[in-house]
């Protein structure tokens, strides 16, 4: 079961879940990811459906 603090695989990389958001019919997770803009890397938090995450354990 994925919960806050779980280590998951998203977009081919290992990430940690910041929070779980329950929106009734579907559940999403807030995951930190890198955004590239003008050749600079910026850490952002993205909302991802749980189906796109692969749980790896804590």
Question: Can you walk through the features of this model?
Answer:
It is a single chain. By secondary structure, the chain is mainly β. 0% of the residues lie in helices and 67% in strands. The chain has strands at 7-10, 13-22, 27-37, 40-49, 54-57. The chain has a five-stranded antiparallel beta sheet, with no helix packed on it. The mean pLDDT is 86.
Oligomer: single chain
End-to-end CA span: 11 Å
Give the SSE order as H and E letters.
EEEEE
Largest sheet: 5 strands, antiparallel
Class by helix and strand content?
mainly beta
Rg from Cα: 12 Å
**Percentage of residues in helical conformation:** under 10%
Total strands: 5
Record the strand order, biggest sheet. 4-3-2-1-5
Mean pLDDT: 86
Low-confidence stretches: none
Tell me, what's the shape? globular
The proportion of residues in beta strands is over 45%
Tally of helical segments: 0
């Amino acid at each position: 079961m994925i919960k806050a603090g779980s280590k998951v695989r998203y977009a081919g990389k290992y990430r940690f879940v910041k929070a779980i958001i329950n929106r009734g019919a579907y559940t999403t997770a807030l995951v930190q990811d890198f955004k590239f803009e003008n050749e600079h890397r910026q850490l952002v938090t993205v909302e991802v459906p749980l189906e796109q995450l692969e749980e790896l354990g804590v």
